[in-house]
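Researcher: Re-running this chain for the archive, since the previous output was lost when a drive failed. Same request as before.
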Amino acid sequence: MAVVLVHAAAFAFGVGSAILPMFLNAEIYVLSLGALVDSRFDLALVILTLSVGTVAGKAIVFQLVRKGSARYRKQAERRPPRNRVTAWLRRTGDLLLTWLDRPVAGAATVFLSALAAVPPLAVVTLLAPLSRQRLWVFLAMVFLGRTIQFLAIAFVIHGVL
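Model: Regenerated structure tokens:
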């Protein structure tokens, strides 16, 4: 019963951290998992559950942004940037959108974002639905990147694998 609760909590935390990454940090959660799980094998399974929860949360955000952007895209006007910072942010966002529109570069961008947080996954999650990025490619790259990152953290801290 306790193992089921740990898996349910990991899934719920994964969903929450995908939707509210500024408030719920999945990497810190992985660090704390060592106190909740005794076996290394069980820890690896809980990490997989956390990754699945993260993918579920990112799917929700992806779909909300895609549906919302389709509704408002036609009526949105692009004003000129007011200063250098907003001009730089616009250029960076346009570059990310260009990469995300391409099949291989888009998948690589999402994977690197999920694995190394460069660019931040929260930003990529908001920009990917605005591109032609397919949902299944986005979710597969998020799952692979986050799972590798979480297992690497668990390996270094808890000696998993």
